[in-house]
Amino acid sequence: MIEIEAIKKEAECLREEIVAWRRHIHQYPELGFETKETEAFVSGLLREWGLEVRTGVAGHGVVALLKGGKEGRTIAIRADMDALPVKEETGLPFASEIEGCMHACAHDAHTAMALGAAKVLSKHKEEIEGNVKFIFQPAEETVGGAKPMIDDGALENPKVDEIIGLHTGCLWPSQKVGEVYVSYGPMMASADIIKVKIKGMGGHGALPHQAVDPVLIAAYAIVALQSLVSREISPTVPAVITIGTIEGGTAPNIISGDVSFSGSVRALSQEQREFLEKRIYEVLQGVVSGMRGELEYRYIYGYPPLVNDEKITADLADVAKNVVGSEHVKTIPEPVMGAEDMAYFLNYTRGTYFFLSGCNLRKGQIYPHHNSKFDIDEDVLSVGTAILSSFALRGQIKTKI
Ligand SMILES: [Zn+2]
Ligand SMILES: [Zn+2]
């Protein structure tokens, strides 16, 4: 049986290498589905360690298989590889070489930690019961690379039984570096979009009775939408409707012909999501038709809610306690209403997603994700590798706690 202490030590020994991978990826960030260089970098290392590597999955995604020497389940470790259209202002010696593009969401760190796990586990190939699959996905920050990768067979051959992934960075101010936050059940929200167009009838600002004013209708409609979360959803269940854009009209004295607005709708369950989709339409239709306007409405499904498997999360918490100590493994205080592409993988197979706090205030890592000065404490890289590796081996690993 493999000792968890040995895995911890092996991850720690790789510290410098993992840091170097992270810095390389950080220096050459790529956007969305265009992760060609990262794909080449990641797949080159994985091949070196003897994994069966498939590149070009959903564009530039990578799926690598580590076949264990014995029969067993297939556990997947997922990392995201894409960066953001942000101009880096960290002043780091390994800052982005690509103008206007930056790893400001720690996906460079996620990729490096998963690579670390691949290297650690590849040395235990013969002892491993089952397989470990590594999934490196593009486009987490945009339209989502997970679903196209699933459609391209990422979870098949062999079929993935369980999947794990993580996010690091400055998650909330009270977190201390190196702490692990798990969540039993719904952890992150769905992120859907509504697009609304209200058609009235344009006219003279002095003669409103001869026109149908879509600006006034839009004002009533937006206020009415806000009553859905406050009046129709239980106060103990989180949901968000944010109208982020509104446009219409050309001059102060002209009644516009139409007004368009768009918004973000977030929920923690499929049921809430479908409820909101239906009720937003009904409220809009009621207000708009009652005020003589015409409605065009589109509800566009984005990432689903991210829901963790409770049993697997409990297993992850046990593994993490052995790596970082019981006192540093916590349950997240409340779900996060941001969305995460990992949710698709968790929709198709059981698994869990967790946070590894990666900001050290004393090292000046105080900036939130997506900020041009965002940075992480590289000390967490080998910790992440140790947790991911130990999780993949659980059931065949000797723990202390
Ligand atoms: Zn992000
Ligand atoms: Zn992210």
Give a quick rundown of the structure.
The protein is of the alpha/beta class.
Kindly describe this structure.
This protein is an alpha/beta fold. It has two domains: 2-188 and 305-398, Zn peptidases (Aminopeptidase); 191-303, Alpha-Beta Plaits. Helix content is 33%, strand content 27%. The protein contains ten helices and 18 strands. The strands form five sheets. The protein has an eight-stranded mixed sheet. A four-stranded antiparallel sheet has the order 11-13-9-14, with helices on one face. Strands 1-18 form a two-stranded parallel ribbon. Strand 2 (52-57) and strand 3 form a beta hairpin. Helix 8 packs across helix 10 (379-392). The chain is elongated. The mean pLDDT is 97. Bound molecules: zinc ion (2 copies). One zinc ion (ZN) is lined by residues 105, 141, 369-370.
Q: How many beta strands in the DSSP annotation?
A: 18
By CATH reckoning, the class of the largest domain would read Alpha Beta
Average pLDDT, rounded to a whole number, is 97
User: Share of helix among residues?
Assistant: 25-40%
